[in-house]
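Let us work through a complete example step by step.
Step 1: write down the sequence.
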Amino acid sequence: MRSGNEPTTARSPLRLRLWLSLWGLLWAAAGTALFVLVGRPGWAAACAALALLAAVDLVVVARHIRQGPHYQPGRDVPPYEPPHGPRTP
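Step 2: predict the structure and record it as tokens.
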């Protein structure tokens, strides 16, 4: 729903989130490997859980990017006019 004051050239932060998820996945995977090599199973498990979370986020973001832009009303649709009456709880 348009409020009338959003920028017409707004951009989605999904690509930034994609790159940050990839960066986090790489660091978490490297941390998992390093902690396994030095014999720290607790830290390795924590890094593995973080890597799994980053991988899930990466898949979700990639899916949203592949879905493409969603419907947005054009310039010919007037902005939503909020009610001016008293607020009722």
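Step 3: interpret the result. The CA atoms of residues 3 and 80 lie 5 Å apart.
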